[in-house]
Amino acid sequence: MRIEFRRQEKIARCLDPSKGFAESRVRTEIRWDPLTCESARVSHFVGFQLLPVDFSGEIERSRARCPFCPERVLDITPKFPSDLVPGGRIQRGQAVVFPNLSPYDEHSAVAVMCREHFVSPSGFTPRILFEAFRACIDYFDHVAHLQGTDFLLVSWSYMPAAGSSQLHPHLQVYATDIPGNLLGTELAASLRYFEAEGRLYWADLIDEEERRGERLVARGRHTAWLTGFVSLSVLSDTLVIFPEARTMKELSEEALEEFSRGLAQVLGYLDSQGVYSFSLGWFPGAPEAEHFRLHVRLTPRLYIAPRVWCTDSPTLSYLYRDHFMIRTPEELAMDLRSVIKLS
Ligand SMILES: [Zn+2]
After folding, report:
1. CA of 312 to the centre of ligand 1 (A)
2. Mean of the per-residue pLDDT values of the chain
3. d(CA 343, CA 107)
4. 259-294: buried (b, 16+ CB within 10 Å) or exposed (e) per residue?
5. Considering the entire predicted model, what is its pTM?
6. What's the CA-to-centroid distance between 56 and ligand 1, angstroms?
7. Which of 70, 99, 107, 154 could cross-link to 282 by cystine, CB 3.0-4.6 Å?
8. What distance in angstroms lies between residue 33's CA and the mean position of ligand 1's atoms?
């Protein structure tokens, strides 16, 4: 068992009307994730360009009744029972954490990240990001000793293309014994690798990516930044691995600061490319999972054709679970290398 970046090229032939029906050959590529073995495609996409979406009207309309804005958040959001979180809510910097009225699990919260109703991707400062994620860790400090809290999950759906109905920046925070499908698959595959090789997959992945020089972006004291060989976004994903931590609760202040600094830089870059929406997920192990390491996946989201609200989740990815990339992870890594400065 070793880390293999398996890919297969396929050539499609057609008689192209734009060339007088001369034969045209178009290359596609299928890749398999070196850990999960899940496949994805690198596809040619005729005339693709990231088209802007004007949210300005909706930003103003939603501001007047936003439950997360500072003039309302403490009056109309729920509180935790005092035996779970004394005082009812957690506040750190601009961040406020309170129970989710539509919970995903027994321990399910929302973290409003900042006071501003709308923040563009480049507007998230390292301080805002640090305090928001640190507030999530504060919540986990209150519940992680309870039953059924093996996995401490934080997810960020930023703007409607990522499935967020509220524009005000917020995180979903929950502790669960059910890791979900992708994290569950990663946990099982990491354990198989650990048992077969006697080494950590995540450490070997970083070393192998550094040796190849195709997708490694940067290494800091506490984090390694790369792009996903098999990405879920058509624009490719950024992965951040914490080689020393299994859960967010194990992160030192310095590690979270380094992550927040790099994330602000990546978000600024994505904004400069016209990205207006993304999904970000923290993937932890259980505290005792020696075979696993904490990592974050950042996946740009978009409307393929905003005029008709055409999402980036067609049947191929939604039902067949076969994602496709238009921009390759190698191209993204090349750009990010000049963006990320961790020290
Ligand atoms: Zn708001």
Report:
1. 26
2. 96
3. 36
4. bbbbbbbbbebbeeeebbbbbbbbbbbbeebebbbb
5. 0.96
6. 14
7. 154
8. 38
